[in-house]
């Protein structure tokens, strides 16, 4: 149900704090705790953060995994840098849509301390100095005045975690209200949601299969649609799934009376979003 977003420089103690939180919450909240992070997805940090597209794909994969794990009963901890303000806002929109509380745990260290801790790691787990410096330079500090960064728990290297306060923020605080645009309206037919999920998934499968044999830019024929799709070469599976989730969210709020039009609507949405 609730989401804890870890945040901080590379090697600022986020994973150690995550382990402490997981142990405490499992022992005291009676809930299962899922950890999602760079390690759980086996990301090669230096390779990912050296390439902007790979980093974007990695953030998309982490967000998608969080979305899969979030439910009404369990707690999810996202153990990653989460250093981009816009990305933290995306995560905030996700928890608004799922109607669950969240909080941000900011592991605050100086660049010098984090660099020292990085050097103490096994060589295979270290950030290169170039990547480390670039990430520190790009880091966007969380601000509790922003809704997506609040409630914010700032933890210095010698601090103890405020376990009770974090637990209260997750379990005793109301979830943020949905915007009108994200609230689900009454569906126009009993099988609309099923058809929406099925049809959009089938369209993506057609696209993914076609990409294996087609040249970038070739128009792809979608059964049941009057338009073809032309996929740019730099669009990957994670991006397409993100567009699918956005389309489903919008269409649930603006359902059509004719389920047979879902394929056309989704194809038109993809063409508009991709070009």
Kindly describe this structure.
With 275 residues, this protein is α/β, with parallel strands linked by helices. It folds into 2 domains: 3-180, Rossmann fold (3-Layer(aba) Sandwich); 184-274, no CATH class. The protein contains 10 helices and 7 strands. The longest helix has 20 residues, at 192-211. The chain is globular and about 60 Å long. The relative contact order is 0.14.
Which features characterize this protein?
275 residues; alpha/beta; Rossmann fold; 12% strand; globular
Which fold name corresponds to the CATH topology of the largest domain? Rossmann fold
How large is the radius of gyration? 21 Å
Please indicate the percent range of residues in DSSP E strands (runs of 2 or more).
5-15%
CATH architecture of the largest domain: 3-Layer(aba) Sandwich
CATH class of the largest domain: Alpha Beta
Could you provide a short overview of the structure?
The chain has 275 residues and is of the alpha/beta class. Helix content is 47%, strand content 12%. The chain folds into two domains: 3-180, Rossmann fold; 184-274, no CATH class.
């Amino acid at each position: 149900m609730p989401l804890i977003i870890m945040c901080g420089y590379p090697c600022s103690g986020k994973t150690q704090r995550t382990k402490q939180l997981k142990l405490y919450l499992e022992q005291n909240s009676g809930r299962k705790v899922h950890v999602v992070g760079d390690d759980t997805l086996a990301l090669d940090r230096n390779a990912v953060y050296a390439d902007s597209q790979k980093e974007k794909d990695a953030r998309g994969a982490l967000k998608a995994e969080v979305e899969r794990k979030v439910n009404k009963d369990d707690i999810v901890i996202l153990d990653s840098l989460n250093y981009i303000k816009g990305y933290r806002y995306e995560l905030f929109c996700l928890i608004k849509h799922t109607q669950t509380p969240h909080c941000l745990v900011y592991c605050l260290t100086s660049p010098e301390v984090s660099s020292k801790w990085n050097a103490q790691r096994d060589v295979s787990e270290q950030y290169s100095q170039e990547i480390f410096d670039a990430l520190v330079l790009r880091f966007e500090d969380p601000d509790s005045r922003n809704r997506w960064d609040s409630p914010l728990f700032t933890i210095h290297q010698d601090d103890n975690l405020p376990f009770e306060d974090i637990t209260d923020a997750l379990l005793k605080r109301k979830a943020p209200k949905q915007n009108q645009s994200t609230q689900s309206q009454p569906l126009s037919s009993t099988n609309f949601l099923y058809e929406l999920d099925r049809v959009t998934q089938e369209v993506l499968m057609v696209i993914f299969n076609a990409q294996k044999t087609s040249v970038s830019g070739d128009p792809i024929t979608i059964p049941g649609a009057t338009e073809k799709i032309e996929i740019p070469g730099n669009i990957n599976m994670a991006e397409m799934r993100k567009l699918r989730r956005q389309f489903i969210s919008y269409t649930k709020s603006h359902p059509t009376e004719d389920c047979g039009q879902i394929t056309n609507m989704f194809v038109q949405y993809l063409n508009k979003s991709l070009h």
